[in-house]
Structure formats: C-alpha cells, structure tokens
Amino acid sequence: MANPFYLQEIPVDALFCNRIEELKELQSYAEARANVVIFSPRRYGKTSLVKRIQKNLSQKGAVTIFADFFGVASVDDVAARLAKAVFAVTHKNAPLWKKALRAIKSFRPVLKPEIDGTFTLSVEPSSIGTTGVNLLDETMGSLGEFIGSNRNLLVHIALDEFQEIVVLKEALKIEAVMRTNIQQHRASYFFIGSRRRVLLGIFNEQQRPFFQSAVNYPLKSLPADELEKFIIEQFRSGKIKCSPETARRLASVVKYHPYYSQKLGFFVFEIGGRVTEDSIDRALGKLLLSEKAVFEATTQGLTSQQRLLLHAIAMEPAKKILASSYIRKHGIGSIGGIQHALRLLEELDLVEKDGQTGCWNLVDPLFAVWLRSQTEEKII
C-alpha cells in the first residue's frame, strides 16, 4: 500500500486539507485582476495552494505564469526567471508560444532534448549589451506586451519567495522598475513569501515603491479539527487505524503545522500497524533526524548571541526576555545585544511574538523541539 502522506510539495490533484475558503477567496481576487501578498511561516502550503488556484484558472482558459525567486543571485537572474516562466507555460500551446517569442525580446528560449524524450528549458540573453536594471525593465516591458497580446484572457502571475529580491544590491531599483511596469499590466499578481517581516516591508513601508499596491493575505494555520480529520482519513485510505485521540496527539506534537503533520504521518505510516503514542514518538525521532541538517545549517548561519537567544526562547518562551531574571537564567548577554539579536531573528522569521499570549516563540515548532533536544536527553 502506497504511503498516503507527502514529503514533497503536494500535487495539485492530491487530497488537500481544508483551505476551502482560501481557495475561493484567492481565486476570486485573481479573477478580479487584483494583486495579493500571500504570507505565512515556511512550509504552510502557500506554493501548493497557489498552484491549485492556477490550475483552476487555467482550466477556465487563463494564462498562468509561476516564477520562483528563491536564491535569486542578481538583477539579470530576476529578469531571466521571469522570461523562463513565460516560455515554460507557453511552449505546449502554439499560439501562445508564438506570442511569447514575439513579445519577450530580451531573452530567447533554449530547449535541450533529454534521453527520456523530455526537454529542459533555459533562457539566454538576446543581446550582450543590456544588463542589470535596464535588462529587468526591458523584460518587464516585454511581459507587459505579452499580457497585452492576450487581451481577452486572464493572465495570472505568481512570484514565489518574492522577498528574495531585497538581498540584491539594487533592491530598491528592482522594486521601482517592477512596480512601474506592473501597475500598467492588466493582470493579477500574487507575491508569495515566508520571510514575513521582509515581504510585508516591501508592500507596507511608505517610502517603498510597492507601498499599498496589493492586498495583504496571511495564510493561517490549519483548523485543529480539520487537520485531525484529514490525518484520520489519510491513514484510513492506507488501511491503518488512527483514533481521534492519536490523530490529535500526532498533530499537536508539531503544533498543527501543515508540513510537519504530513511528514510525521509519513513516518508513522512507514512504521506500520495501528497508530499509537509509541509509534508517534518513534516517528518524531525519525522526523527530527530528517530535519537535522536544515536546523544545523540555520544555526550555523547565526552569531553566538543569536544562537544563545534562539535557544533560550526554545527552552522557555517568555513575554519579557529583557527581564534581568530571564537574562541571568539563560546567560544571553547584554540588553543591547539581545535587542539587536532579536531584531535579526525576527527579520529571518525564526522568532515571533504570539498575538494572544504575548510570548516570544520560535516560528518553527519542530526547530524548537530540536533545540531543546540538544540540552535535554530522554533517559530510559
């Protein structure tokens, strides 16, 4: 029996937990040609959700373009990814392909045949002279021309991990060029991102080009009861029994996090047999081991002050981390150093202040479990 839980991005035709209201609202925004900023912690299912919306839109005749900006390295790279996204979605549609070739003047597509009969797509600049912000401006103008050539069709463009542009030297110029062009495009743009503070700064800081140009749309955590029902149903589809109590335990141990609930369910299913407290604990060990490299890489990129503060918050979420008793207990340094470290950790979307309790917590619940495991050891 195939494992019903997914470790990678959930296919657009696979069973999806809830998000009915979000699908309806966001599709309506897209059809109204609105621009939307979709934000949430990492691995909340933003990309899967947007791709489902784009599938629905394409089935209704829309042109849907998806560009991923994760790890973008330069302004030229931003432009190239936009051009490649247009060619990628049009290459199987002859009329659209011809329009794309006519409109996108700054790049030309390169199709490379593979042994299995498929093709890989890349792009290369059409000329040597234009680079940097000028190349991006030219590409955005070409994109506008492509959108205009499909006047009778809805064009929807999703830009994943959009906040990555801020790490580039010419970030503000990039924002200005993109905003100037986008406001002339008769299309709907979805700007998607996980570093919420950075992404929202682009659209909500008054001095920035994108200020108040899109609808802010937070993707919230899944409702507890819906996630528990989903877990039970997934196990049932795999011929494994899971009681409501054990489903609640499985979801709650990762704080009802969408991705970690799926991955923990995957490991529990692999263990086999009825879902029990013991199988969940064993699966949690496997889950922590599978994420260890990610967590180690995250901590290695931090200063010692930031690591100390992160560990303190994981061990003891608190409202007043600047209180002298808290500082002494966790040995986290001076008030000035703590304030600076906190700002950076928040900007990296590693910590956040809970709106209900007022406590500082780690954004990633499994990261908190892993950090605690570095200090605490279970003795049998």
In brief, what are we looking at here?
With 380 residues, this protein is an alpha/beta fold.
Topology:
Blueprint (H helix, E strand, L loop, with lengths): L19 H12 L4 E4 L6 H14 L3 E6 L6 H16 L3 H10 L3 E7 L5 E7 L6 H18 L5 E6 L10 H12 L5 E6 L2 H9 L10 E4 L5 H14 L6 H9 L5 H14 L5 H24 L3 H12 L8 H7 L4 H13 L3 E3 L6 E3 L2 H9 L7
Parallel strand pairs: 1-6, 1-7, 2-5, 5-6
Antiparallel strand pairs: 3-4, 8-9
Helix pairs in contact: 1-2, 3-5, 4-5, 5-6, 8-9, 10-11, 12-14, 12-15
Distance between the termini: 34 Å
CATH topology of the largest domain: Rossmann fold
From the spread of the alpha carbons, the general shape counts as globular
| SSE pattern, N- to C-terminal | HEHEHHEEHEHEHEHHHHHHHEEH
Class derived from helix and strand content: alpha/beta
- Kindly report the name of the CATH homologous superfamily of the largest domain: P-loop containing nucleotide triphosphate hydrolases
Rg over CA atoms, rounded to whole Å, is: 23 Å
- The CATH architecture of the largest domain is 3-Layer(aba) Sandwich
Care to count the β-strands? 9
Number of domains: 3
What percentage of amino acids are in beta strands? Answer: 5-15%
Description:
This protein has helices at residues 20-31, 46-59, 75-90, 94-103, 132-149, 171-182, 196-204, 224-237, 244-252, 258-271, 277-300, 304-315, 324-330, 335-347, 365-373; strands at residues 36-39, 63-68, 107-113, 119-125, 155-160, 188-193, 215-218, 351-353, 360-362. The model has no long low-confidence stretch (mean pLDDT 92). It is an alpha/beta fold. The strands form three sheets. A five-stranded parallel beta sheet has the order 2-5-6-1-7, sandwiched between helices. It has a two-stranded antiparallel ribbon with strand order 3-4. Strands 8-9 form a two-stranded antiparallel ribbon. The two termini are 34 Å apart. It has three domains: 20-218, 3-Layer(aba) Sandwich (Rossmann fold); 224-297, Helicase, Ruva Protein, domain 3, CATH 1.10.8; 302-373, Orthogonal Bundle (Arc Repressor Mutant, subunit A), CATH 1.10.10. Helix 3 (75-90) packs parallel to helix 5, helix 8 (224-237) packs across helix 9 (244-252) and helix 12 packs across helix 14 (335-347). A hairpin with a 6-residue loop joins strand 8 (351-353) and strand 9 (360-362). Helix content is 51%, strand content 12%.
